[in-house]
Amino acid sequence: MIADGMAPSFDWSFNENDQEFSLTGSLRPQRADELSGCLSELERSVSGVSGKFYVNVRRLVRMNNVAFHTFACKILDLVRGRSDLNVHVTTSSVVGWATRKFAVLETMSDQITVSEYDSEFYPGQTFLEEGGFIPILRTQTKLTWHHERTMLARHGLEPEMQVADICCGIGDFAVLLQKEYQPSRLVALDHSRSSLDYARKVAHDFGVRGIDYVFGDASDMLLESDQFDFVTCRHSLQVFDRPELILKELFRICKPGGRVYITNEKNSHCLGEPRSETIQRTYTEVARLWSHFNMDIELGPKSRRYLIEGGFEDIKMESFMVTNLDGNPQDFADIIQSWEDVYAGQMAVERGDSAEEIKAFRQGFQDHIFAALHPKGYAGWPIWVASGRKPQ
Amino acid sequence: MTSLSEGASPNSDALPMLQMDLDIQDFCSDWSHCDLMSGYLARMVSHNRLDSLLFSNLYSSALNELLETVFRTHGVNGTLHCAVQRIDNRDRIELVFPVDDATYSIYHEAIETLGREDAETQYLEALFADREPDPNLGLLELGVDYGAKLAIERRENGTMRLVADLRLEDKTE
Ligand SMILES: C[S@@+](CC[C@H](N)C(=O)[O-])C[C@H]1O[C@@H](n2cnc3c(N)ncnc32)[C@H](O)[C@@H]1O
């Protein structure tokens, strides 16, 4: 399953600006001298650098002992000869062997440090992971599924397809999709270990088989190119500071002629009656708050532009509104309460909002809940669905 | 050059195993065979794992080290027999190949080192040695870094059997 088509051969590059030397691909030479070209480039790169020199092995998928031995000794040589030099090796947790293997370098010299890159790159991750968000994610999916169940078919999903759900979260969408559409293969990928653990446990407890829950970085996946008929990515482009990078990866793993399906929000358009004004004010603030953390919770209506600029054709787009009338209004209210907890209780605090600002901010959520539970009230959460075809 | 068979394993609690036989000289005619074979088998055995992508990557790395070791250190004529199977949460790789006294002693030495208390130190020394890496470095890595249980057995017919039991999934989570 490793992308043979993607990382077949070995390559290296030096980025002078970042003082970073990157190794990519698969590196299993028979003899050390096969690496001489790369080693002399490494040496040359280091000679022009002072202070910190970065070695990036995040995309180095395979490396045998011959290669490791050669590189490790070279790096040790370099730091031993230059007391002004510090080498920092960046690995990826996705590759499995890399961090453990490179970590021994740290024990050989205190001029060398090693760390895993992907622990902290997505701005909102800690908020969501630590926020006790899991039950609420389930409720959200329950309410959105009510709409998407049939919508997916309109966007081209059919039984027996090869499907990937990227940024699958706790995996409940994948389970619903599996039951409804019986894909011949279903890969669900996320970058949160705790979410994946949860997903696997649920699948196991519910006797759901055949979903392949995979740990990975959506902006840099180890999945092969051109292999899925239908790729979904829900509520997630909006949590990245550079959504186009994720979209590029979704495009890559999609088969030519297959479709990529994304859903995103525009939170400032959440609405409710009564008390529409305070509700409106709070959700406008939500949008600002997210952008403070480099995330775009207003992305929904921009999906069309992203898909077109990402090279997709035959773009289909529609929107739907999750409301308090979709089922039990308390479900809707629970979602809003959890938003308040995370947005006002954590994110606004971290932004440095004053107590007074936070109080006003909280009010809109409470009013939204009021509208949802009001016998004559109406409360809504709008979502934009868009899909595009990868050209043949 | 190869024959591939799939079937029930003799071990009743194990999943079906996969087996490849190839002429040792054919195998050793090209270094890339190690990579191709480990990649291929890793793909075949990675289904229904906690994380198939991660598993396949680790499995391929471990198997490749074993195959590279055999590539460098083996007897002259005969067959390389490679079988893989899954037993509960262990994965067993079994290699049978021709040896003579000199080549067998290299495997024997590695197993002995791994049985010693300072196995890890020995491994790190070998890993950072100034000279060309020892031929048994791959075995030491498997034993120390991957926590594999390795066993060898010399056979009457001029072959030896190398068995590696791996627990890759415990380590990945
Ligand atoms: C807002 S949640 C959406 C989850 C799910 N799709 C849903 O609709 O409930 C965003 C998800 O993106 C995941 N994520 C963040 N950065 C990621 C990355 N670089 N690669 C893969 N997943 C990532 C998070 O772990 C989280 O589960």
Explain what you see:
The complex is a heterodimer of chains A (392) and B (173). Chain A has helices spanning 36-47, 65-81, 98-108, 125-130, 134-154, 172-181, 193-205, 243-253, 276-292, 303-309, 329-351, 355-373, and strands spanning 11-15, 20-27, 51-63, 85-91, 112-116, 162-166, 185-190, 211-215, 228-234, 254-265, 271-273, 313-323, 378-389. Residues 1-7 of chain A have low confidence and may be disordered. In chain A, the strands form two sheets. In chain A, strands 6, 7, 8, 9, 10, 11, 12 and 13 form an eight-stranded mixed β-sheet that branches. A five-stranded mixed β-sheet of chain A has the order 1-2-3-4-5, covered by helices on one side. With 392 residues, chain A is an alpha/beta fold. Chain A has two domains: 10-116, 2-Layer Sandwich (Transcription Regulator spoIIAA), CATH 3.30.750; 125-389, Rossmann fold (3-Layer(aba) Sandwich), CATH 3.40.50. Helices cover 43% and strands 25% of the residues of chain A. Chain B has 173 residues and is an alpha+beta fold. Chain B has one domain: 2-Layer Sandwich (Heat Shock Protein 90), CATH 3.30.565. Chain B has helices spanning 24-27, 32-45, 52-72, 101-115, 119-127, 137-144, 168-172; strands spanning 2-7, 17-23, 79-87, 90-98, 149-154, 159-166. In chain B, strand 3 (79-87) and strand 4 form a beta hairpin. Residues 1-12 of chain B have low confidence and may be disordered.
Short description:
The complex is a heterodimer of chains A (392) and B (173). With 392 residues, chain A is of the alpha/beta class. Chain A has helices spanning 36-47, 65-81, 98-108, 125-130, 134-154, 172-181, 193-205, 243-253, 276-292, 303-309, 329-351, 355-373; strands spanning 11-15, 20-27, 51-63, 85-91, 112-116, 162-166, 185-190, 211-215, 228-234, 254-265, 271-273, 313-323, 378-389.
